[in-house]
Amino acid sequence: KAGVTQTPRYLIKTRGQQVTLSCSPISGHRSVSWYQQTPGQGLQFLFEYFSETQRNKGNFPGRFSGRQFSNSRSEMNVSTLELGDSALYLCASSGQGGRYGYTFGSGTRLTVV
Amino acid sequence: TQLLEQSPQFLSIQEGENLTVYCNSSSVFSSLQWYRQEPGEGPVLLVTVVTGGEVKKLKRLTFQFGDARKDSSLHITAAQPGDTGLYLCAGDYNTDKLIFGTGTRLQVFP
């Protein structure tokens, strides 16, 4: 059974550019969540999608957005990149509801220069 | 703001020693999850506890959920170098949105 797949693994972008990250959840999982991990702030919730609908959103500016497709694959987009957006972006999927735990992907390491 | 405090922040021990990591909050959780993360990888789920007072064992790891469902602990017996990693607790408030703890970085030396 394939795990959660995130692409690309590494990305270097210039300040002001935009970026799109992709996540393919475990087959059959309809809930996909995104988290940002930085050394200073730890893991912080970005948003959660279920059946193409955003159900939850964290405290991030509007430059961070996402979407989910009918096959449960999800993308997140960050526009007008800032240096502080450099982080490991993690995607997680759940089949039984978040209360029972998540399977995380290996993440996309984004560096903004 | 929901906060999850983990202690200690860092732990450096010799192989064979025992250790306990604590996770505390002022809020009541629907469930409490423990993850381990290795460098360059995503967190891996170790256990989920949902009932106050619940104790779960996973080989040398023992997880306990507080009676009031506001705190949890992870105890490792006879630590091994393979236990090295970042241990994260995460609380779920029945909102499909995890609040992660500050993390405990464990280093076990042979």
C-alpha end-to-end distance of chain A: 37 Å
* Radius of gyration of chain B (Å): 13 Å
Q: What's the total helix number of chain A?
A: 0
Identify the quaternary structure here: heterodimer
β content of chain B, as a range? over 45%
Label the overall shape of chain A: globular
Q: Helix/strand-derived class of chain A?
A: mainly beta
Please write the string of helix (H) and strand (E) elements of chain A. EEEEEEEEEEE
SS-derived structural category of chain B: mainly beta
Residue-averaged pLDDT of chain A = 94
What percent strand of chain A?
over 45%
Biggest interface, chains and residues, is: A-B, 28 and 25 residues
Helix content of chain B: under 10%
Return residue spans of chain A where pLDDT drops below 50 for at least 5 consecutive residues. Answer: none
Written description of the protein model:
The complex is a heterodimer of chains A (113) and B (110). Chain A has 113 residues and is mainly beta. Chain A contains no helices and 11 strands. In chain A, strands 2, 4, 5, 6, 9, 10 and 11 form a 7-stranded mixed β-sheet that branches. A 4-stranded antiparallel β-sheet of chain A has the order 1-3-8-7, with no helix packed on it. In chain A, a hairpin with a 2-residue loop joins strand 5 (42-50) and strand 6. The mean pLDDT of chain A is 94. With 110 residues, chain B is mostly beta strands. Helix content of chain B is 0%, strand content 54%. Chain B has no helices and 11 strands. In chain B, strands 2, 4, 5, 9, 10 and 11 form a 6-stranded mixed β-sheet that branches. In chain B, strands 1-3-8-7-6 form a 5-stranded antiparallel β-sheet, with no helix packed on it. In chain B, strand 6 and strand 7 form a beta hairpin. In chain B, 36% of the residues are buried. The mean pLDDT of chain B is 93. The chains are: A mainly beta (113), B mainly beta (110). The interface between A and B is medium-sized, with 28 and 25 residues.
